[in-house]
Structure formats: C-alpha cells, structure tokens
C-alpha cells in the first residue's frame, strides 16, 4: 500500500506527528473501545499485541 508506506516514511522522518492518546494491552480491547466511544480524545488509541 503506497499511501501507508509514504505516511510511515514521513513519520519516521519526524515530519508527520501521530498523537497517541493511550496504549491498551490487547486484553483490554473492550475498555479501549469504550474509551473511543466517549470521544474527547487527544490522539489515537493503540492496542498493543504482545
């Protein structure tokens, strides 16, 4: 996917900032989903897969 590769390249170069609101472990996916439903987030929610 050329668009994703380009975006990742910009991020790695420090040109594109990707704000992260919070990182949840995969076991807390339901909680992450609830948090996203409430809105008012300052960034993205990330699920960490171990």
Q: Largest sheet at a glance? A: 2 strands, parallel
Number of helices: 2
Task: Tell the overall outline.
Answer: elongated
Structural class label: alpha+beta
- Share of helix, binned: 40-55%
Calculate the mean pLDDT score and round it.
89
- What Rg, in angstroms, do the CA atoms define? 13 Å
Whole-Å distance between the termini? Answer: 24 Å
Contiguous uncertain segments of 5+ residues: none
Describe the protein's architecture and organization.
With 50 residues, the protein is α+β, with helices and mostly antiparallel strands. The chain has a domain at 19-50. It has helices spanning 2-12, 29-38, and strands at 20-25, 44-48. The longest helix has 11 residues, at 2-12. The protein is elongated.
Question: What attributes characterize this protein structure?
Answer:
alpha+beta; 50 residues; 2 helices; 2 strands; single chain; elongated; two-stranded parallel ribbon; 22% strand
Write a brief structural summary.
The protein has 50 residues and is α+β, with helices and mostly antiparallel strands. The chain contains 2 helices and 2 strands; from the N terminus they run H-E-H-E. The chain has a domain at 19-50.
């Amino acid at each position: 996917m050329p668009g994703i590769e380009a975006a990742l390249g910009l991020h790695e170069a420090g040109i594109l900032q990707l704000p992260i609101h919070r990182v949840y472990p995969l076991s807390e996916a339901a909680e992450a989903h609830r948090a996203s439903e409430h809105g008012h987030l300052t960034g993205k929610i990330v699920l960490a897969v171990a």
